[in-house]
DNA sequence: CGAATGTCTATAGAAATAGTAGAGTTACAC
DNA sequence: GTGTAACTCTACTATTTCTATAGACATTCG
C-alpha cells in the first residue's frame, strides 16, 4: 500500500498539470478540489518543491506550478520522494540499498530472487507512467466530447 | 516494502519445503537456521497454521510440516496472510476492498488507473511463484554438483 | 510422571502515519 | 510603505503498525 500522503501528492500534481502553465495554483484551491487537509498538503508540496518537482510563488497571487512538463514527471519519482524506496526489500532498493543482516549471501537468498522480479515489474510501470498519462484519459474524453 | 514478518514467514516455509515430507521441523530449528527470533516465529507459524498453510505436531518430537505441496504455496498467498492486501490502494484490493472516500468515482480516478497496472504486474509475479520455485535454484545447484 | 514441544494472550518499545498548530517570511495591491 | 494574502518552516501529537518479548497453558512421547 502506498501512503495517503503519496496519493495526495500525485493528485495535487495532476491538478497542477491541468492548470495553465503559468498560472500558479493556490494550496487552498488544490486542497479544496482534491479534499486534502490543507496543512498536510502544504508539507507535501513543500517537499516536492525541495525535490525540484514544483516551484512556488509567494505572496499575493502566489501558488504552485510544475517545474517541468507533466510528461517528464513519473509516478515512480514521486513515490520515491514521498514514500521512499520502491523496492519490496531493502536489499533490492536502488536509492536506499541496505544489506539484509539476517540473510547470508544475496546471491543465495531465495526470497530476494523472487522479489527482484516484483521490483522490476513495479518499476516498469511506475517509471513509464507520468502525470501527463494520468490526466490523459480525461483530456481524450474532452476531445471526444468536442468532436461529437 | 514487505514486513520483516513476511520475510520470516517465507523463509520458514522454505525450510519446511526443504525438509522430509513427514519429518516435523521444530520451531527452534527453523529459528536457528534462519536467524529468526524464536518467539516471533512461533506467532508466525501459528498464523500460517490457522490459515491452513502448515500443520503442527505437539509434544515431544513435535514441530511443523507443510499442509500442502510446496509448489502449490504461492508467495502472494503468504503475503496476504502476513502483510495483508497486495494492492497498492485499498480500492484495488481483492481481499480487502475499501472505497477511497476522497476520490469521487473510481472510473474517473486518475491515480487508481495507474496503480491497477502496478497491482496486476505484482500479482502476476507473486501468484505464479511458489515456495518450490524459491528453493529450486538451490536444488538445481545440488543436481549440477552431483552430475559433475 | 516429566520433560519437550506447540498454543495462546497480553504487553511494550520504537517507528511510521496522518495530521494540527503557529510563528515566520515574502510579495503584491493599494 | 503598509496590510494582507499567500507560502515556509519547525514542532508537536494522536493513532496505528511493526517487532518483538513474556509467561502461563496444553499436549504428546518415552
UniProtKB/TrEMBL annotation, chains A, B:
One GO molecular-function entry: DNA-binding transcription factor activity
Keyword DNA-binding among record annotations: yes
InterPro entries per UniProt: TR_Rrf2-type_CS (IPR030489), Tscrpt_reg_Rrf2 (IPR000944), WH-like_DNA-bd_sf (IPR036388), WH_DNA-bd_sf (IPR036390)
Superkingdom of source: Bacteria
Pfam family, one: Rrf2
GO cellular component terms, semicolon-separated: cytosol
Keyword line: DNA-binding
Tagged with keyword DNA-binding: yes
PANTHER family referenced in this protein's UniProt entry, alphabetically: HTH-TYPE TRANSCRIPTIONAL REGULATOR ISCR, WINGED HELIX-TURN-HELIX TRANSCRIPTIONAL REGULATOR, RRF2 FAMILY
Protein name according to UniProt: Rrf2 family transcriptional regulator
Species annotation: Rhizobium leguminosarum
Native organism taxonomy: Bacteria, Pseudomonadati, Pseudomonadota, Alphaproteobacteria, Hyphomicrobiales
Amino acid at each position: 500500500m502506498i501512503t495517503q500522503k503519496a496519493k495526495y501528492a500525485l493528485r495535487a500534481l495532476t491538478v497542477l498539470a491541468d492548470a495553465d502553465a503559468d498560472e500558479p495554483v493556490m494550496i487552498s484551491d488544490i486542497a479544496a478540489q482534491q479534499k486534502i487537509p490543507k496543512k498536510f498538503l502544504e508539507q507535501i508540496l513543500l517537499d516536492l518543491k525541495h525535490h525540484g518537482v514544483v516551484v512556488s510563488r509567494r505572496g499575493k497571487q502566489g501558488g504552485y506550478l510544475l517545474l517541468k512538463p507533466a510528461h517528464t514527471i513519473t509516478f515512480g519519482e514521486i513515490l520515491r520522494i514521498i514514500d521512499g524506496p520502491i523496492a519490496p526489500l531493502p536489499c533490492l532498493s536502488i536509492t536506499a540499498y541496505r544489506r539484509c543482516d539476517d540473510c547470508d549471501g544475496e546471491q543465495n537468498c531465495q526470497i530476494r530472487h523472487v522479489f527482484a522480479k516484483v521490483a522490476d515489474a513495479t518499476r516498469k510501470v511506475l517509471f513509464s507512467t507520468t502525470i501527463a498519462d494520468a490526466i490523459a484519459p480525461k483530456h481524450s474524453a474532452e476531445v471526444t466530447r468536442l468532436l461529437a
